[in-house]
Specification:
heterodimer; A: 4 strands; 3% strand; globular; B: alpha/beta; 4-stranded antiparallel sheet; 10 strands
Chain lengths: 603, 263
């Protein structure tokens, strides 16, 4: 109050532009007193909470470092947990895929300018906290005397570094990415020097576990070293090119690369497909060419501003033909292509315009059907990588695979369902509402079981669908119902005024939706959408129940059943939970960043 | 605030003779109900090309509903509305045609918050008028210059003041090169010191020969710019006349009551 009394007379002419009073920087004792021990009740609470936390930490440490724990079960089976039965002699394919993803990640860091400067004293503070926490945990943990000394030494080293950095000038800072590289390099270096042990599982006629003292196997440390070098090199290269490449096309192509790379990595690199060239040349390529040439010709004509009414009639006829093809025996891909062409044709007048706009529209069509045709061909081509069991991937890669494809399918589907549910056309509204409410009323596991067991039985003769495909489709349908509700929330947040403003300048419904309503709705829906994405990722673990070799299955059912590692369930579960947590937490972090970014323009 | 400045201005109607101009907007017996409430009650009026009509009246009198019917943001249930020789029916093509001929500016600006100011203005010309992008952006820049804020083109609407946002909204409507402009209480949501900058643009627009329908509470603007003033109450047009007639010598009792309350 008193501030106001002083300030007001000065305010009249010109508001004084002064910085807010600086928050006084409290020394630790005072900070503790102010925040943790301000009253009797607060002090009691602090003490009790600290004791509880200490007990929990101690319990966890006792569990982790108990000599009874079979951590070598996890170490020996790392490859099994990551890729299940993928053959070791073909592992270069896996490393190649990891390298591609790392390069994409590095380039994304460059293009989206991720990374901030951390002032060295701040870093020192964090190291201090980490060092003290480490020392505390060392004291609590049931280590042998030697291990205790080693860990105390390490904690002391961290503490000392922290203290040293605290003294450094406030101005000096370090990039967060540099820091990440340093940490990564230390991790990789530790593979070469620290005697983690030499573990491997030799699956011969009588399986044998190899566990020797020493550093980790060459097949582990060498690839990781190369991966680190590749990632850093890609970043450095991208950094040097950044100023010379226009930013917007670079971003678009990176997003496309992210979306397309799994399709290529899985179906070409990891699977090494054996293409039936005769079939590809006689059927697949001609189908694609016919639709690409005739389709883009048609779309170019439809998107011409002067085409007018006749275009809509043609589009409607194609749609009818598309639905008609389902009544006659025909290749599925042709039916889908015709229906897709009809949808493109119907939307064409909304995106018509000058030559460039029309060409862009045709290009989108051609690239979309190229991907579609490629996928159909790739999926129908048998693999040459010899793998026991039905599917060639398992473990963590299967988890990632199912999550990726589920999200890839369910996002567009969810947006379309949400639009249909809020549409003014009763038939769309009815269908969408019915679908969403039906799917949301069924447990996910029921849907997964249905798709894995029942769907293959209903397929027409001659058509086979791998179980994993059927299950992914089912999961995508399930996820899309939830995503649709999240998007609908976003759609409702777009005000009536926005609709009216778009209508008042003469936009068609399609234009209004694409340019005005959806961008705003999706922006609002980011938090729930990310929540749903995380849930979708984690719930892939239900694949365990229908017997697919996902990460949880390997950890829970395979490893603990190996003769050498009987009952190592808890170790593996803890390891698996850490993997799930790391991925989910990074998604959550990325979404916070995204929110801040898109929130900039709004305010 | 602006009233005091324009106290001495001559009345707009003296300046031009529009009797030979062609009809731009024809309303015949237009009625509309919201549930049981009748918002418009047999509204009939004809607006000539290049005419500036100001619609006055108390809140809830149907002014906004009426002008929103003219570009079909609201649907009338009886009667007929013809805009630039196109009758408004349920036919979507007619509606889209009319909407691209009729510009509208709203009380709440309704700029697209996720687009930069320039894109706000050029979006519709590119996709509805099918203009080449470069040309549309050039035009957007010219229009922003016209409304006096060319330097804001790369900002987002949320970074502008209310008056600036409303000027962008006017530029956005003008970018479609409309033949008619509708203004729905465009200054009501503005701080008083920003009202003038918006009204000045509207005056310039009126002088340039745009056909305009303006719903407003700015009496000064009505006096100075209007060719005709229509007074609406309870969904009916109660009185129509030149500003001089309307402000100095109104015939209807309801008009007199309204004027006595606001002047």
């Amino acid at each position: 109050m008193s501030e106001y009394g002083v300030e007001i007379p000065n305010v009249v002419g010109m508001p004084p532009i002064t910085a807010p009073p600086e928050e006084p920087h409290l020394p630790p004792q005072q900070w503790l007193k102010k925040n943790l021990f301000s009253s009797t009740f607060n002090s009691v609470l602090t003490v009790v909470a600290s004791l509880v936390i200490l007990a929990i930490v101690r319990g966890l440490l006792m569990f982790v470092f108990n000599p009874l724990r079979q951590w070598n079960a996890t170490a020996v089976n790392l490859r099994l947990l990551m890729t299940h039965a993928y053959p070791a002699d073909q592992y270069i394919r896996v490393w190649f895929s990891v390298a591609v993803l790392l390069i994409l990640a590095s380039l994304s860091l460059v293009v989206w300018r991720v990374g901030s400067r951390i002032p060295l004293p701040d870093l020192g503070k964090r190291l201090l906290i980490m060092g003290s926490a480490g020392a505390l945990m060392t004291v609590l943990a049931p280590f042998s005397a030697r291990a205790t000394v080693i860990w105390l030494l390490i904690s002391g080293l961290v503490l000392a570094t922290g203290l040293g950095l605290r003294q450094v000038d406030e101005e000096r800072s370090v990039g967060s990415l540099t820091l990440a590289v340093i940490v990564g390099a230390m991790g990789v270096l530790s593979l070469w020097v620290v005697p983690f042990g030499h573990h491997s599982y030799i699956a011969q006629r009588t399986p044998r576990i190899l566990a020797e003292p020493g550093t980790v196997d060459m097949t582990t440390k060498l690839p990781w070293t190369i991966m680190l070098i590749i990632a850093v090199t890609a970043y450095a290269l991208g950094r040097s090119l950044r100023e010379r490449v226009p930013i917007k096309p670079a971003r678009t192509s990176l997003v496309l690369a992210w979306l397309l790379s799994p399709l290529i990595l899985i179906y070409i690199v990891l699977r090494d497909p054996m293409f039936d060239m005769g079939h590809v040349i006689s059927t697949d390529i001609p189908i694609f060419l016919v639709f690409a040439i005739l389709g883009s010709g048609l779309l170019l004509w439809l998107a011409h501003p002067h085409t007018g009414e006749i275009g809509r009639i043609v589009a409607a006829v194609i749609l009818l033909v598309g639905f008609g093809t389902f009544l006659t025996p025909m290749r599925m891909v042709i039916r889908i292509l015709i229906v897709l062409l009809a949808l493109f044709a119907l939307a064409a007048p909304s995106f018509s315009g000058e030559k460039r706009a029309r060409h862009r529209y045709a290009c989108i069509w051609v690239s979309l059907i190229a991907i579609l045709c490629w996928m159909v061909t790739a999926i129908n081509t048998p693999s040459t990588v010899p793998v026991p069991g039905e599917f060639f991937l398992g473990g963590f890669s299967l988890t990632l695979l199912v999550a990726f494809f589920t999200l890839l399918v369910s996002f567009p589907l969810g947006v379309m369902l949400a639009l249909a549910r809020t549409s003014t056309m009763p038939i769309f509204r009815l269908l969408a509402t019915g679908f969403i409410e039906f799917v949301r009323g069924i447990p996910l596991i029921t849907i997964l079981i249905f798709f894995s067991v029942m769907v293959p039985l209903f397929l027409p003769t001659g058509m086979a669908m791998p179980e994993i495909t059927a299950v992914t489709i089912g999961y995508a349908l399930f996820a899309s119902a939830y995503l649709a509700e999240n998007v609908r929330g976003g759609l409702q947040s777009v005000t009536r005024g926005q609709h009216e403003a778009a209508e008042a300048v003469g936009m068609t419904t399609v234009q209004k939706t694409v340019f005005i309503v959806l961008p705003q709705a999706l922006r609002v829906a980011i938090p729930p959408l990310v929540g749903q994405t995380i849930a979708t990722f984690k719930e892939t673990s239900l694949l365990y129940i229908i017997g697919l070799y996902d990460l949880l299955y390997v950890a829970k059912a395979i490893v603990p059943n190996q003769t050498e590692f009987m009952g190592s369930t808890r170790e593996n579960l803890l390891f698996v939970s850490i993997i799930y947590w790391v991925i989910s937490y990074s998604m959550s972090k990325a979404s916070q960043r995204l929110e801040r970014r898109v929130g900039l323009g709004e305010r | 605030m602006t009233d005091s400045q324009t106290e001495e201005t001559s009345y707009g109607a003296d300046l031009r003779d529009l009797s030979n101009a062609r009809d731009m907007i024809i309303c015949e017996g237009v009625s509309k109900w919201y549930g049981d409430f009748q918002a418009l009650d047999k509204v009939s009026a004809t607006i000539k090309e290049k005419e500036v009509v100001v619609v006055l009246g108390p809140s809830g009198g149907g002014k906004s509903t009426w002008i929103r019917c003219i570009n079909r943001l609201e649907q009338h249930q009886e009667g007929r509305i013809v805009v630039d020789d196109v009758e408004l029916t349920n036919d979507l093509r007619n509606i889209e045609k009319v909407r691209s001929e009729v510009g509208m500016v709203f009380q709440q600006f309704n700029l697209f918050p996720h687009l930069k100011v320039r894109d706000n203005v050029s979006l519709a010309p590119i996709w509805v008028r099918k203009k080449p992008k470069a040309e549309a952006e050039e035009q957007a820049q010219a229009l922003l210059e016209l409304v006096g804020i060319p330097e804001q083109a790369d900002k987002f609407p949320g970074q502008l003041s209310g008056g600036q946002q409303q000027r962008v909204a006017i530029a956005r409507a003008l970018a479609m090169e409309p033949r008619i402009m509708l203004f729905d209480e465009v200054t009501s949501a503005l701080d008083p010191e920003m009202v003038k900058e918006v009204l000045d643009i509207m005056k310039a627009l009126a002088r340039s020969g745009m056909t305009m329908m303006v719903v407003t509470h700015e009496m000064g603007f009505a006096k100075e710019v209007a060719d005709r003033i229509m007074f609406m109450e309870e969904g009916q047009i109660v009185e129509v006349g030149t500003p001089e007639h309307f402000f100095t010598n109104p015939t209807e009792d309801r008009t007199k009551l309204f004027l006595s309350q606001i002047l």
